[in-house]
Amino acid sequence: MKVFAFHLMPYAHLDMGYAEKYRAAWVVLPNTYFDPKKGHELYNRYLDELELVAELGYDGVSVNEHHQNAYGLMPSPVVMAAALARRTRNVKIAILGSAFCLREHPLTLAEEHAMIDCITGGRLISGMVRGIGAEYYSMGVNPTVSHARFQEAHDLVVQAWTRPGPFAFEGKFYHFEYVNVWPRPYQQPHPPIWAPSTGSTETIEWAAHPSRKYVYLQAYSPIQSVARYLNYYRECAQTMYGYTASSDQIGWSTPVYVSDSDQKARDEAKPHIEVLFNRLLRLPFEMLFPPGYLSAKSLKNMRSHKRSVSGQEHTVDSLIEQGIILCGSPDTVRKQLMDTHRLLGFQNLLCLLQFGTLPRDLTERNIRLFAREVLPAVQTLTDKEYGGMEVRAAE
Amino acid sequence: MEATEIDVRGCRLHLRRAGRGEPLLFLHGAQGLNGSEPGLDALARHFDVIAPDHPGFGRSGDSDLIDDASDLAYFYLDVLEVLDLDGVHLVGHCIGGWVALEMAIRSTARLGSLVLIGSAGIRVKGVPRADMFVCAEDDLLKMLFAGDGGAAWIRSWRATPELEDIYDRNRAAAARYSWSPRLFSPKLDRWLHRVDVPTHIVWGREDRVIPPAYAEALQSRIGGATMAVLPDCAHLPHIEQPEAFANEVTQFIQSRSAAR
User: Fold this and answer.
1) Domain that includes residue B79, residue range
2) Is ipTM strictly over 0.90?
């Protein structure tokens, strides 16, 4: 299994009293809540944390994109990936992902990804995401065409990376007379593309298509939902497209915290993980799902699922109980990961090792302890340890 | 009102029709129609009222031809041809007012008059508008109604599972046509001098979705337009003040007919 350390780079200094005045840490939360001097410290601390990860045997570091919010301070993950490109040597740098379709000019992102791939000698993984619903408010892109625009932006970027230029691109949303991206990506035909998602049926079916076979990365969710979506990818490959998906196409992303004992881990993680879910991820339904962002069918499915992630007050205990996070002693977390792998067979794991307000010292200890006590065991997991779909059915 | 369906350019258009008299085409706004609009019933006492669900809304089909208000305008100009209507009194509310304006700058050949109710379509810089998409439902109802009519109105959408689905569908369709730029077309403003039919502008005084400053801006740009601002009324005059709404429309049209 490939194990990545993922960072959201939250604005940990947020005055959490904001919640009495504002509905969300997104879209409507004034940016006067952001103190640039504290931001300076945070960015550099977070980059230090990812650079530490790169020295401790993890397979990669990962960053992502969110706009106009306190949850994640990376409107441009490319900036972070560029900063990491020259400060790391062997690890993958995974942008999971970039919202190409939120751009009027996805080619600028295609160029930047190709630059990072060339600088790093092919260490880039390019995630492609639609952007969450809130970003359709913040960036002004029409949410009702997000799937179509996402797919077209993908087609444009992949062609820009692979077809000899210049050529004309003639789409519905994008029209370019001259597509001729310099530099071309280092990896040929192009960097690996991953599709991170919270569980959109349309995205799973799109990613599993035989012409793509992209890694589907399930964002953190109750473990039952994770199972449903990851298994749906495999079922989709089998029944819709007639091939058996490789476990290398399956990925899971989850917050992880380890400490000396289960109780100590809970106690230490509690205030910081609760800030992540109850304050930074505070998103009313209308903001998370703007009209038309989901198909009518997905909207109904999501109403039941997503309320359980963002619609209620979480505690560290409820998060552990629902399998939204992994938290405990190294033995406990290792066992949980191995058990879950036997059930779901994911060969890619993204660990969110800093979350919410988790401070520098606890984050660093988490990164080191996980690297020493958990990482070696899970990195050796292969498809042989995966029980397969039949085992799941039998249980 | 009696419901029928017609096919226009491959799109199934659901429309309700009632009353006798000169034809009046009512183009609905972002919230769509559910049959509980007393203002339309009042108009049917004087006119042949035709109230379609826009493509993508209500019980009408979808159309790949239609992405925005400009497409809807061409579509409804085609509808007037298909229904073979002349001297039509075009009454547009919110997004429907925007479509009516887009129609009128293209062709008034089949129009008799124009009434704009809390109309979208232009942008008055510096006048803040409340966002009906991002807000919670309670806030939306406070935004749409000056009084306490919101509770009954939202109940009318919860009457059947079909209407509940239509409510969501209408929100998505409204977003599709009006998301960005929000509720206006930058080009429309340049061509409003082409509106050459008698025009009346009716607005709820408490409208925060599109504040009354927009009524004044439209009046200043459309030659000879008259204006009425209704008290105790926000964004949905045909629901919140149905009699005042119907009186304004009826008296305007009848006074113009008398003048002819």
Assistant:
1) 2-259
2) yes
